[in-house]
Amino acid sequence: MYTFSPERFAYKNFIDHFLASNTTPPHTELLIDFLEASHAVADDLRKLSEVNTDINWENYSGDKVIQLTRLSWLDDERNRVFASILLKGVIIIVTAITPTAESVEMFASRVGFTDACNRHSSFIHQMIKEAVAVNERRRNSRRMGVRSIHVESNIFASKLHAFCPRQYSDFETRLLILRLRIANEQYDHLTYGRNGRGWTSRGKFGISTFRDKAFDTAVELFADQQVVLIHGVYVQFSDELGEDHGGVMRDWFTELVDQINTRRLFVNDTGFDMIGSNRNTTELFVVGNLLGLAVIEGIGTGLRFPLSYMGFILEQKISLEDIALEDPLLYQTLRWAKEATAEELEETALDILETSSGEATPVTVENRDDLISRKLNSYEREDFQALVSIKAGFYSVVPPTVMSDNILTPVEVRRMIEGESNIDVFEMWLHIDLVGYDSSSPQIVWLWEILNDESSFTQPRLKEFLRFVTGLRYLPLGGFDRLERRITIAKLSRDDADMALPSAHTCVYQLNLPEYSDKEILRMKLIYAIEASPQMGFV
Prior knowledge:
By secondary structure, the chain is α/β, with parallel strands linked by helices. The chain has helices at 6-10, 13-20, 28-50, 57-61, 64-68, 80-97, 101-111, 113-119, 121-139, 151-163, 165-168, 171-188, 214-222, 247-262, 281-297, 307-314, 328-339, 342-348, 368-376, 384-397, 410-418, 425-429, 442-451, 459-470, 519-536, and strands spanning 194-195, 198-201, 204-209, 233-237, 266-267, 274-275, 351-354, 360-362, 432-435, 487-492, 503-505, 510-514.
């Protein structure tokens, strides 16, 4: 059994085996031994750190572990599994000895470990996915009160970016790291029984509300800022039978957004949700709660804020490249101003920013960087307090540590909150399973034709169809691939099928479709069910 000692680890025989065989990976058993030993080393190093013992990597490792990352067989695609095990073990050990992200970064740079990670980015990505899967299973377990998160989760969540800056710039990887950070915070903030003014179910904050009072209830419950929402919410609509296994919560999100839009908290005359005439700071704080919950739950809301708002909330500056796709004309103008000569700027007398008095400031070589930054990050002066309230609400749900190190950009967070606004029927069909029907069943053929008929199923109606089946009007970022599960269309067997309405179980994304005798009956019944579904309480 492994017993920690610096000398034993530094000059352990199996490390010498690694270095002696530069072109061929060692036996799998040896690699597993190394991985298991790395966990033991990491645990011992943490214990030593707790008693303030100075630890010096050079004193007990020499150059041998550093050399592990430079073995030539790591670069052979045929050795992917071996490389993954080795890199995982080295990461576990190194991060245990370097308690801060800054020290990890310095060490990684010194020993060239960053290059190793860049060469094996797919391994790193897979390791993070494995850690996410572990946390997701634990989150859904009834034993979620037991704190025994795998060491990889904490390591990757807090420090991987320092090791692998190029890999860290990949959105998919950073999104996985964000989920790990959220999972760690959820374990740190477990609550049972009462939670502020609400109740809890398995750590979630419980809400009981009438559907048409969803936002008023949220304001009443959330406004005292004493509730813990990091785990998400469990919703029960009064006078409705549905039990929340995810579907009711998603429908609650949709209701909240609808009710926010009726209160003139935001106006959308330019394609963006701008702060409106109702500047109720308490209600805007709850809007911030909703945005935070959208990030926690991975739910698209359809709200699309200007990038300057997102930059304010995340405390990040909007760059010129951030607006390249959003506003190509402004991007080209500002790009030209940034690269133009002094003579060209003087000839055009370009104005890109008005002062508070309405006067324009001519752009010069000396002031252009400042003016461009102010233009990209500007918002109305009277919006400041409203943005402060939204920001406070957001961070009362999402701990600042989750968003630290600029883990996601303002553009990416806005896309997460907004979700995907376009419903592609063909893509949706690729994510559908059939139960009781097959692809040649008349009812399935008719449904395909109906959903593809743009005269009756426009984008707004397709969104309502999606809501009917899943509780979501907007897909999460990434489309149907990011849904928790595939959509199921199940045969609803009844003798009087033509008299029945379709029903849905939003928690499991299931549409129960009667065996209609005619395409037009199916169309009529489906549209009626979709339009009536919020009142009918299908879950």
